[in-house]
Amino acid sequence: MIEIQNLTKRYGQILAVDNLNFTVEKGEILGFLGPNGAGKSTTMNMITGYLLQPRGL
C-alpha cells in the first residue's frame, strides 16, 4: 500500500503540488494524467525520494 497525505511542493512563489492525498492498495494500478506543468513528475519525484518534500507523505 502507498498512502500519500498532504503532499505539497513549492518552487519559490510557484505552487507545484497543493495538498495532494491518495492511497494505492496492493495490486492496484494508478496513473497520473494532466497537462504540462500540472505536477505529475514533481509528485513522483517526491514519492520516490528524488526530491525532498517539505510537507506531507
Automatic annotation (TrEMBL):
Positions of the ABC transporter domain: 17-51
GO molecular-function terms, A-Z: ATP binding; ATP hydrolysis activity
The organism's place on the tree of life at top rank: Bacteria
InterPro entries per record: ABC_transporter-like_ATP-bd (IPR003439), ABC_transporter_ATP-binding (IPR050763), P-loop_NTPase (IPR027417)
Key words, A-Z: ATP-binding, Nucleotide-binding, Transport
Family: Belongs to the ABC transporter superfamily.
Entry protein name: ABC transporter
